[in-house]
TrEMBL record:
UniProt pathway annotation: Aromatic compound metabolism
This protein's name: Putative coenzyme F390 synthetase
SUPFAM superfamilies named among the record's database cross-references: Acetyl-CoA synthetase-like
Domain AMP-dependent ligase C-terminal: 320-410
Highest taxon of the lineage: Archaea
GO molecular function: nucleotide binding; phenylacetate-CoA ligase activity
Lineage, highest ranks first: Archaea, Methanobacteriati, Methanobacteriota, Methanomada group, Methanobacteria
A Pfam family it matches: AMP-binding
Keyword annotations: Ligase, Nucleotide-binding, Phosphopantetheine, Phosphoprotein
């Protein structure tokens, strides 16, 4: 995907602002002090990357490029893997994000006649308020539940006749299982599910869609770049459309930083074209995907990336083999009796790595045969031998936010 004249103009405008920025720290001025006006694609690709570590070092407000009186909101990453990243928003940033989110709803066929049930968290996290702002701009009724209290969630869903569920895939699955357990499917009015915040496999997608009886749409975003709502899949389920009038996207080789051609899998890099409070140039997301060439069947002019296959920091190396959660998803997708839910444990015992896959299996299948089948499929597809421990559906923990599936206990 190449820069167009409109994007080039906005990037140069951003660079000029960043070189002059001196509000909290000299983060931008130091990073881009040698950068000149961008005239070509080659010029742009010489600009330095920005990484999450850069953002952590700028804590708390080193990313801020406007005076305090222009900042109307603060959002933050969770900080579970280190110092949290704090992102300031101007009123125009909030407006732009709301416009993008409204587009997401429209791409999913949601209208002002829908009732939107919002379960992602509110507060410093971007998710809940993003879903709500977009719904309000669309003119639809929104129910700002946030996560947890599943009983109350289901009561509101039934009584208010919610038609659209917004959730993480983990919580959507939990709700689907609870609806089935309580035998209240005939009281649920959901038609669509807009699911984001974590990568999820095809088997999990089918379970949620079938058990809730909904059409599913993948929504994409990250706190550093506005939040969820910078892209979404359409009815043809052929990747996620991204709003390239607000953002520019590249795919790079995670090891070399080389820009890859459209169609090749690599790490997604994002440049904000209009963001005022905390602009980012060539931000490495660590999300692995590819730009899908050509025009989508839906006719949208917006470019697409493929569904995320994982993150560079999700990968674990065992016995010389790189393993991503998406590979385990693909193994289980081939096994009829296996569920989408698993936990992959890596331990180091007696000077060697031991891998154990706990996987939920259906009760009408022979656990011993499934254990052998999964073990063989894992060896064939990924290349290492593992221990397989089949468990009953529902035995593995459920999460109201994101699920952790790989546990590396070697360190």
């Amino acid at each position: 995907m190449k820069l167009n004249e409109y994007q080039l103009k906005l990037i140069n405008k951003q660079l000029m602002r960043l070189k002059k920025a001196n509000y909290k720290k000299d983060f931008y001025r130091d990073k881009f002090k040698y950068s000149r006006l961008i005239k070509t694609q080659e010029d742009f690709e010489k600009l330095p990357f920005t990484d999450k570590n850069d953002l952590r070092e700028a804590y708390p407000l080193g990313l801020q490029t406007v005076p305090d009186e222009e900042v109307v909101r603060i959002h933050s990453s969770s900080g579970t893997t280190g110092t949290p990243v704090i992102i300031p928003y101007t009123a125009q940033d909030v407006e732009d994000w709301t416009i993008m989110f409204k587009r997401c709803y429209e791409m999913a066929g949601v209208t002002d006649k829908d009732i939107i049930h919002i379960t992602p968290g509110y507060g410093l996290w971007t998710a809940g308020i993003g879903f709500q702002s977009g719904a309000e701009r669309l003119g639809a009724m929104s129910i700002p539940m946030g996560p947890g209290n599943t009983g109350k969630q289901l009561k509101m869903m039934i009584d208010l006749k919610s038609t659209v569920l917004c959730a993480t895939s983990s919580y959507a699955l939990l709700l689907a299982e609870e609806i089935s357990k309580r035998d209240i499917n005939d009281q649920i009015h959901l038609k669509k599910g807009i699911i984001g915040s974590e990568r999820w496999g095809e088997k999990m997608r089918k379970r949620i869609a079938n058990e809730l009886g909904v059409e599913l749409y993948d929504i994409y975003g990250l706190t550093e770049i506005y939040g969820p709502g910078i892209g979404i899949s359409c009815e043809y389920e052929s990747g996620m459309h991204l709003w390239d009038d607000y953002l520019y996207f590249e795919i790079i080789d995670p090891k070399t930083g080389e820009v890859l051609p459209d169609g090749e899998v690599g790490e997604l890099v994002i440049t904000t074209l209009k963001k005022e409070g905390a602009p980012l140039i060539r931000y490495r997301t660590h999300d692995l995907t590819r730009i899908i060439p050509g025009v989508c069947e839906c006719g949208s002019k917006y470019p697409r990336i493929d569904i995320l296959i994982g993150r560079t920091d999700d990968m674990v190396k065992v016995k010389g083999v790189n393993i991503f959660p998406s590979q385990i998803d693909n193994v289980l997708a081939k096994i009829d009796g296996a569920s989408s839910e698993y936990q992959f444990m890596i331990d180091h015992l007696n000077e060697r790595d031991i891998c154990t896959l706990f996987v939920e299996v259906k009760t009408d299948f022979n656990k011993y045969e499934l254990e052998r089948e999964i073990q063989e499929q894992f060896k064939n597809d990924i290349g290492i031998k593992i221990q397989v421990k089949p468990v009953n559906i529902g035995d593995l923990p459920r999460n109201e936010k994101k699920s952790t599936r790989i546990f590396d206990n070697r360190y």
